[in-house]
Amino acid sequence: MRRARTALCGLLAWLAASTGAGAEPESEFSVLTYNTHGLSAWIAGDDPERRFPLLLERSNAYDVVLLQEDFAYHELVRKHASHPLVVRGNGPAWSWLGFSGSGLTVLARTPSPRIQRARAYGHCHGWLSAANDCFANKGYLMLRLRVADGVEIDVWNTHLDAGIENGDHAARTVQLDLLAADIARESRGRALVVGGDFNTDWADPRDRALLESFVGRIGASIAVNASHQRWPQRLDYLLMRSGTRIALDLVAGGIAEEFIDSEGVSLSDHPALWGRFRVSAR
Asked: Which of 82, 111, 215, 238 is the most buried (most CB within 10 A)?
């Protein structure tokens, strides 16, 4: 009888393994990336104090939120975000001009990251010209987040040098070199999502080649690269990559059309991009 029970248990275990029963269930999580145009009102040319509460209310629907240009109104982000985790990027710079640090913030449902990294690129082009990038400490903010039981994803938020001059392109080249090297070191073999304002125009052959080279170097793919009649330029992206143990698939994504006010005016000068990702064990 004991031998029969042992054989039966073995058979049931084999059936469970062959049918996938007992494996980690699939789960999904959503990511939003959004350049908030969070400069002081005299630079932004509108009313950020009115926009930011609306922007955060709409962001609260997403599991992970990657914000760029969160410079002058971070207290409104903290006040109106419902996410238990709010992490800001590297330190302050020229706050009296409406710039502060990298302008990068990550919001997440998970209460704490297991790993957190932030870096200023240290390369820029333009002080009082060429998009004035050098007034901010542009860089990246990386968090290792638990998005489901036993499932961790590395999330990278970045904002690159703006502008169309040769110096701007050279700065973006250096910045992506640094980002690729740090991803290789920190996220080797891990599933990841990289989002942000890359300031690489999909319609510009040189910019597009630079972005595609970076995507290939980190072994990722472009998950969301949306254009719209309202947003002819493609500067913002969500990238994705599976890991050795975690498979990552895009379920849906595009422009988050709800980021407008009651009069239909956009809440930033950039589109908000979103993606819903499915994770499963390999």
From this structure: 238
Q: Rounded to 5 degrees, what are φ and ψ at 27?
A: -145, 165
- Contact call for residues 241 and 275 (beta carbons, < 8 A): no
Backbone angles phi, psi at 164, to 5 degrees: -120, 5
3-state class of 79 per DSSP?
helix
Q: Report the CATH architecture of 28-281.
A: 4-Layer Sandwich (3.60)
Q: Tell me the pLDDT tens digit for each residue of 190-238.
A: 999 999 999 999 999 999 999 999 999 999 999 999 777 778 788 999 9
> Please, which residues bridge with residue 154 across strands?
144, 192
The rounded distance, in Å, linking the Cα atoms of 257 and 128 is 34
The secondary structure of 190-213 as a DSSP string is --EEEEEE----TTSHHHHHHHHH
| Bridge partners, residue 206, by sequence | none
Domain ranges of the chain: 28-281
Tell me the two tokens of residue 82.
């419902």
Q: pTM (2 decimals)?
A: 0.88
SS3 assignment, position 166: helix
Whole-Å CA distances, 97 to 37, 38, 53, 88, 90: 14, 12, 22, 19, 17
Coil, helix or strand for 131?
helix
The length of the chain, given as a count of residues: 282
Q: What is the DSSP letter of 244?
A: S
Q: Is the dihedral of CA 203, 71, 94, 174 positive or negative?
A: negative
Count of other CB atoms within 10 angstroms of residue 114:
11
Please compute, for residue 74, the number of CA atoms within 13 A of its CA located in the half-sphere on the CB side.
22
Pick the closest to residue 207 from 171, 183, 246, 179 (CA basis): 171
Q: What is the pLDDT of residues 228-282, one digit of tens each?
A: 777 878 899 999 999 999 999 999 999 999 999 999 999 999 999 999 999 998 8
